[in-house]
Amino acid sequence: MRRGIVWFMLFIVSTACNGLHAQASSAAGAPEERRNWYNDPFFTLSHAIADCPVPLGPMMTHAQMEDDAHYRVERGTTCWLAHKCTKPNSYMYDADIAGAIHARYPNPQPFDGTSLWITVQRRFVYVEGCAPASFDRQALQQQLEAIPDVEQVFVRINASTHGPMPYKTLADPDVQPATQAQ
Q1: Crossing angle of helices 2-26/62-81, nearest 10°?
Q2: pLDDT tens for residues 20-66?
Q3: In Å, what is the CA distance from 166 to each residue of 86, 151, 155?
Q4: Residue-range definition of the domain harbouring residue 6
Q5: Which of 47, 50, 105, 140 ranks highest by number of CB atoms within 10 Å?
Q6: Model pTM score
Q7: Plot region of 116 (φ>0 → left; ψ -120 to 50 → alpha; else → beta)
């Protein structure tokens, strides 16, 4: 039964990738156009620091999407095969996790003075952006970890808007992130 579901999921993803490939081949866009090919949740939690670089989030080129397709299927189904998920693919949790984050923080007031973006992929939550050094990153991480079905939270917040960021940015997607937030 499990093998049947896994093969079915592989077929679905393969079909989707072929459809995306056909769409991209017929599109007149630039070859390096970056899109959220897999519709991973990516949204702004706060935006008070105007010059904080926008994270790259789930944006990728068509070539990166094609390269990532098999890896996503493998990572997504591993959770179910290991009996750590009830859904057959860990990416199937992402929309609900994003909805729970929106429900938990309907008011941006706790994030005054920050610019934060959220990406949800494979039950992982990424918080990226800028906040003053006084912002309680640990408290935010613990609150997000308490959301049902969240497996891990990565907080990549910089105290400065200048210099290397601890995440890839939309403006400079090929620049490697700094290893530690400042």
Answers
A1: 170
A2: 444 544 454 555 899 999 999 999 999 999 999 999 999 999 999 99
A3: 33, 21, 9
A4: 2-158
A5: 140
A6: 0.81
A7: beta
